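Blackboard transcription, Thursday session:
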Amino acid sequence: MGIVSPGFRRRRRDDDVELPPGQYLTQDFPVLSAGPTPNIPLDRWQFTISSEIGQEYQWTWDELLELPAEEPTVDIHCVTKWSKLGTTWRGVSLDLLMEEVETTADYALVHCYGGYTTNLPLEDLLDGKAWVVYEYEGSELAPQHGGPARLLVPHLYFWKSAKWVRGIQLQEFDEPGFWESVGYHNYGDPWREERYAGD
Amino acid sequence: MNARLEWRVAKLSGVHHETATARTLQLDVPGWPGHLPGQHVDVRLTDEDGYSTQRSYSLAAPADGDRIELTVQRVKDGEVSEYLTDTFSVGDPVELRGPVGGWFVWHPSRTAPVLLVAGGSGIVPLMAMVRARRQARSRAPFRLLYSVRSPSDQFYASELRRLARDDGGLDVATLYTRSVPTGVMRPPRRIGVADLEMYGWPPQFEPTCFVCGPTGFVEKVANSLVGLGHDPRRIRTERFGPTGG
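(Written on the board underneath:)
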């Protein structure tokens, strides 16, 4: 516990819910991104999973929408300290997308339209923990929130839920992504407050 | 490979009022490692019951030894910003850690033109770049577009006037959105493509663009810059939400 700040009193009452350390609740949906929002025409949208031996598995926009969808309701935690509870999304489970993929890789590097990348262990994308989502609260996903489609990996800080997702490169080695290369934690578990490198 | 960013106990050594609702905090942080302009710190407040909460604030100036500066805008019902702008007094301790962020930064050794576009309190990390440029005696050409509601909402007004007057390499355009001071011809309105064309750099100059402000502002400016032909890879953004409290 930190030193007491003279004269500081708690204002918000978040005590009926348990939040990860250092997080506060918001009802808004703040935006965080490193650059401009890319414009991605749906007729040219593609999602590609590439295995460590170069095998590619691809989906067009229409093919993605034809896959069985799930509607996860999850809590999300941004490294900039806000948490938002009970958000509902619609999209395709990574378990389904990975079903036919032959791989022994341990790591994934996620690529996005606009050039953003983020890395995570492959096991964090499997077993019902991750989705490629295209709807938020019943509406199509807005561009500034990652539309047409973003990754959703809610058990990690939200920067891992890459906006404007374009593909996943499976690799035998771990390779830091965008924020992971500029001082943020490589894994990013909010419950262990893994915000920055070294946490 | 990376040492953990440790929490440090800083002490408030001075306060400077920027506007009626924003003030600059001078903090002494023993052992401060230095920082780049554009980086921020995490501030942690703890009450007597052990309740603790954190927020991020941009560093407003280059470090002066162990002394750093933050400018904090009071946000309605923001328990941290209200504390830092009203209650926090000279001599009081506060915990912070940093510097954080390695993307929205300007390296004073760079010589390429720089375009800074600030909306409201988004001026803070961009002012740190302007000040770092001066401190490093950099000749990198800078243009700052500062969109602000009215003259009374302006941060750093006299300093920016002085810096722009004394330095041919720095242009400052203040763009008012609600009310203008007498003598300003541009009617109050939100920043537009015409402003970016008139006061910014042409895309052929390949400036590095830093855009900071509320989400709607950043979206609009970044999209306009892309529309004018600026390479999206040279546009770096940082957003201040209403939840920055």
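Lecturer's comment: DSSP finds five helices and eleven strands in chain B.
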